[in-house]
Write a sequence for this structure.
């Protein structure tokens, strides 16, 4: 299983970005997918989850601003980020969990300027 994240960049506060994570290999359809992030000098933290059936869950800091979704036909998970804040600046990582094993993408940098 390989994950390729993309879509990061530099955006002003209040702006939007959409991250994508393309998954190759088997197991996407019935695996939960996650986004995590790691800000400079901080530990990696969980951001959002989409289950195999499309149900979602969010960290409190992003709820109402971020939307996670998946396209099973494309083996891709998305993170739509709206009303971005400087504190959202981080490297964002996608993750697939299959049979208790975590597979991580390489990360994509999101920088939000004030």
């Amino acid at each position: 299983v390989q994950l390729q994240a993309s879509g990061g960049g530099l955006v002003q506060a209040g702006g939007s970005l959409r991250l994508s994570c393309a998954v190759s290999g088997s197991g996407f359809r019935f695996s939960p997918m996650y986004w995590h992030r790691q800000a400079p000098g901080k530990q990696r933290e969980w951001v959002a989850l989409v289950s195999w059936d499309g149900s979602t869950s969010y960290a409190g800091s992003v709820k109402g601003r971020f939307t996670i979704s998946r396209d099973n036909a494309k083996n891709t998970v998305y993170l739509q980020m709206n009303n971005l804040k400087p504190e959202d600046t981080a490297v964002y990582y996608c993750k697939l969990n299959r049979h208790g094993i975590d597979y991580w993408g390489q990360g994509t940098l999101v920088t939000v300027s004030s």
User: Anything to note?
Assistant: Residues 2 and 22 are 8 Å apart (CA to CA). The first strand starts at residue 2 and ends at 6. The chain has a mean pLDDT of 96.
